[in-house]
Amino acid sequence: MIYNKKELFMTAEQESLFRQKTVKKTGKYFWAALIFVLLFQVYNISYVLYYTDFRLSSQASKVYMGLYAAMVLLCAGAGAAGLLWTSKNEENFSRLLNLYSLFGCTLLFWSACLTLYDQRVSDNLSIYMTSAVYVAGLIYIRPKISIPVFILSEAVLLTGLLGMHLNEIKDTYGVCVNSIGLTLVAQFISLHRFSSLRREFLNRLEIEEKNKMILEQSEKLNYIANHDPLTGLWNRNYLNEWKEKFFSGGTAKAAVLILDIDHFKEYNDAFGHVAGDECLKKVADALLELNPLTFRFGGEEFLCLLTQKESRQAGRLASNLCSHIEALGIPSACPGKSLTVSIGYSTGLMTDDLEFRRLLHEADKALYLAKSSGRNQAVEYLPSKPQQS
């Protein structure tokens, strides 16, 4: 099927985008044809003037001159409008498409008139044939315009041909049959181009939409795979991915901080697990403000990582995290006191997973000391002994 209105239906937004892309695709043919036709008419006018010694004494020369001059004016007007609408910043895609269609339809009628006049001395349909194929194959014209235009142009041509036949000027039967056949073929090509352009656009939109859905689904799955569903922080799965990138990057200096919420079991017992989940979210948000590379390590434990120059600020960050969490004012299980955290951290070289585990183990030891010596503090692991910071 060449044309199915329901199948090729577009929304207003799709239609606007389609016109924009179609202008870019068909505009080059419009300009190429306009320049060619304009130059050809200049040649024809020059030839007629030279052939008649600039006197245009015969009726035929005057008719030809009128037809050629009319086409020059059409090309000049269409070119001026095209340049004006193309140069403006505002969107003139609909105007430009209408201009292309108008130029093509006028060219078709003009070629029918010129071909008809040429039939006085020749059976040649080349001008009409060339224009019809160009308009049908290269210009986007909606069927409600192309169908009546092709019918009317053929009617003009047939009326003139039959008039010549009745006046016994020529035997035009063969020319009539050929022109009808050509018009039908051109109409078929025009409808096919209309439907193929729209169908191609809709197919491409569908593919882009599916690709977008696949990409969004992929991003969603990637987020689920790498984030903790409760707090939104990175999870252990992304930790493994991050370590591989870090080890392959050539950097070596790093700091590992383990943070644990003080008396979180008592908090859950006092306020319930729903409140406990909300507490974890608030703590996670606070951690994320101060250090983007933060992971939920399990239960009420969190892991913060620092690299390169940032690792030198591990002690300051750890202290800031403690004070920042306490400043949230989250009620603790102990009446009158705010929720606090304890932190243990270790700094050193981290070129492979073995060294990461060593830093993690050292930070865990420092965390144990922070909790056993009063909580709500940050302790750095030192080779001799963990030291409070």
Question: Any overview of this molecule?
Answer:
The chain is built from 11 helices and 6 strands. By secondary structure, the chain is of the alpha+beta class. Strands 2-3-1-4-5-6 form a 6-stranded mixed beta sheet. Strand 5 (378-380) and strand 6 form a beta hairpin. Helix 2 runs antiparallel to helix 3, helix 3 (93-118) runs antiparallel to helix 4 and helix 9 (273-290) packs across helix 10. The chain is rod-shaped and about 120 Å long. The two termini are 79 Å apart.
Give me the secondary-structure category: alpha+beta
Give unreliable regions as ranges. Answer: none
Beta content comes to 5-15%
Please bin the fraction of helical residues. 55-70%
Mean pLDDT equals: 90
Largest β-sheet summary: 6 strands, mixed
Terminal-residue CA separation: 79 Å
Number of strands: 6
Shape: rod-shaped
- Determine the number of helices (DSSP H or I, runs of at least 4 residues): 11
> How do the helices and strands follow one another from N- to C-terminus?
HHHHHHHEHHEEHEHEE
If you compute it from the alpha carbons, what radius of gyration comes out, rounded to the nearest whole angstrom?
Answer: 40 Å
Strand order of the largest sheet: 2-3-1-4-5-6
